[in-house]
Every structure is written in C-alpha cells, then in structure tokens.
DNA sequence: CGTCTATTTGAATGTACTCAAAAGCGGTGG
DNA sequence: CCACCGCTTTTGAGTACATTCAAATAGACG
C-alpha cells in the first residue's frame, strides 16, 4: 500500500496528506492472483485497473490470425489493464494477465471516476500518469518506425533491464515487434 | 473559439458554464501561422500546445539518419505539439509544423498548469483528452505490429478519410511506417 | 522422468526497402 | 502565359531484414 503512496507522490511531485491518501485508499482493495490469471479479457467491458504490489503482468492484443502481441509489461509499482475498454466503457480488445503469482491493488471504474471527480490530487495523479504513459508509448512508436530490431532490443536492455531479467523471451520479442526466432538470433550476435 | 468549447463539452460529456469557459479562455490567445511554420522544435523546450481552429499541422520525429517520421496529424479541432517536451519540461525530441496557413489557440505551460490546478473541469478535460490520445496511439501501435502496410492504409482510409484528402502522400506513408514508394504501389493496386 | 513449452539454429521466402529514373504537379518569375 | 524549377508521385529492378517453415535442443513443471 505504501508503494502506491510513494508512486503518487513521485508522480505528482508533492506529498499527500494522510487524510487524502486514506480517502483514496478506501476506493481500493487488495487482491492476490495466481500466475496466468486473466485481469482483463477481450470481449468483456473492463471494470478494473490493477496496481502491482508484487509479481508481474502484461497486456496483449490478439490479431485476426490469433497471434498475440505484447502491449505492456507491468512489474511492481506499475498499473496495468485494458485502458481502452476501461476508459471508453466499450468491449475490450486487449487481454491482461499475470505472469507470476501477484498481489495487486484493484480500482474499479466507478471508484476511479469518483476519486478523479472528488479528489483533485488524484485527478492530477492520473492525468500525469497517463501523460507519462502517452509520451513513453509515443517514443516506443517512433523507435519502432525508425530503428531496426537490434537497436530496439539494445534500447530495451538499457532502459528496462528488469524486463529482460523477468519476462520470457518470446514475450519480449512480441513487445519489440519481432518473432522469437529473430530475437534469439539478435541475442546470439550480442551476448 | 467556440470550436474549443464544443470540443471540451464533447470530451467531458457535459456543458461548461459561460463563466468556466471564459475563465479558461483567458489563459489562451489566438494566433495565425504561415504554412511551414515551426510550432515546436527539436532541441528546444516546448512551451506551448496549439489547438487548430483552421488549417493543419503535424508533428514528426527525426531519426539518426535524418529521416523524418510523422507522429501525429492535426486538422481543425485537434491539439498538436511536442507533448513529450511540454509535459516533461525537457529538451524536445519532436518537431511540429503547420502544413497550411493556420489559425490556432495557443496555451502556454504555466497557464496549462494553472488551469489544471484551479479548474477541475479543465483538469478533467485534459485527462480525458490524453486518455483518448493514449488509447488511439496504443491501437495504432498494435496495428503497426500486427497488420501489413496495405491493411493499415485501408484502416486509415476508413477511420481518417480527411487525412487522405488533405495530407501529402509522403507524410501519410511516413505516418503508416512505410516509404512513399510503397504507399504509391499500394494505392496503385487499390484505386 | 515424461510432457509441454520455450529457445536455438538452419534454409528458403516475402514484404517492404534501396537505388534509380521518369513523369506529374504546383508555384514563381520572366 | 508559359517556361522553368523544385518537390511529389510513380514505376522498375535488385536487395535486405525479418519471416516462415522445419527441426533439434533446452528448460520448466507436474
């Protein structure tokens, strides 16, 4: 729980009062999930977002051929969900699932909206969080367009070494937009 | 100006009071720009975001080889800027420039922050705006990973016909992550 | 252990790229 | 007005990065 408080304070750049945080934390509940548990499912309207206290998870997109494409990885201190569905209330197009046994703080949409509308600090927190997510994704996108697989992998190693350690290779490949065979060849060249 | 008000009301799903809107509009000023005017420049900290009242603009990333990659197009009713730099206050890595002679509403960062911190409705507006931008970009990203150039172009035609009309082909190609020659070949096949 | 999943390696293939050049379009000035 | 210039689009031929298909090896889990 204090992991979330730290995350909020780090994100907005100021401390929370105990009161503010405790008000917000009443909107959340803690829950443990087994490995491979589906947190969000394509075809369902996604009702929750999850803050990882322990463990790991990822979200992915399944294309028409049934191929899965990793969208986001979440380790401790990350939020994960199908944000498309959560924000738009529409049928989900992504899946999210745990990679390890995990403990999460869970926030449902009604509470998310109430918190945003009644706690300016929290509204701010989520605005900044999503701003950061947006600029990160935009950068990942332009690198996907402009750099080859080898350079993108090198960049991932540099910026997210924890992913390389904890996420299986075929998912890292998918995240980079290549096939597991290609990533294996890249790793072979650069030990 | 009323274009912005409509955009806000459409985005947050409720109307603004005249008072709220007029308070917010005091943070903005209107400005005309010639075609090819740089709105945000790589290497500079980006101080403004621009809401297009008339005309068009786009943002792009320049890679190590000097190749330009279109990141976003903006027509009337769109915001455009280097959001990475604007939000983070860091040296910009994107450029933004007008494609036609344009009129914009300009919002500087200090005013953006003041507006977000003093006008809950506006904070909400920008949070939802960026949420929408995020989910759109995420979808564009997974389609980049999972669909070939032809399918991505067909999708762009369907979802953003106005882009096809008003944006030069070499920029559309770049936006799709392909070369102008390739887009030309795709268009040749599918008239 | 045995089975299932993940990773590695090899060879052939394909989508989009590069290089190259021609044709089309648009604006500018003589 | 049209001739010219620069920029955009088209078309052709050869190429490359990553893919597909295939199979062997390695690793994880019950």
Biggest protein-protein contact in the assembly: A-B, 37 and 37 residues
Report low-confidence residues of chain A grouped into runs of 5 or more. Answer: none
* Count of distinct structural domains of chain A: 2
What is the mean predicted local confidence, pLDDT of chain A?
96
CATH class of the largest domain in chain A: Mainly Beta
- Looking at the overall shape, the CATH architecture of the largest domain in chain A is Sandwich
How many beta-strand segments of chain A?
8
Number of helices of chain A: 9
CATH 4th-level superfamily of the largest domain in chain A: Jelly Rolls
What Rg of chain A do the Cα atoms give? 17 Å
Question: In sequence order, what are the helices and strands of chain A, one letter per element?
Answer: HHEEEEEEHEEHHHHHH
Determine the strand fraction of chain A and express it as a percent band.
Answer: 15-25%
Strand order of the largest sheet of chain A: 1-8-3-6
What share of residues of chain A is helical?
40-55%
Q: Structural class of the helices, strands and pairings of chain A?
A: alpha+beta
Q: Report, as a whole number of angstroms, the end-to-end distance of chain A.
A: 38 Å
Oligomer: homodimer
Shape of chain A: globular
CATH topology type of the largest domain in chain A: Jelly Rolls
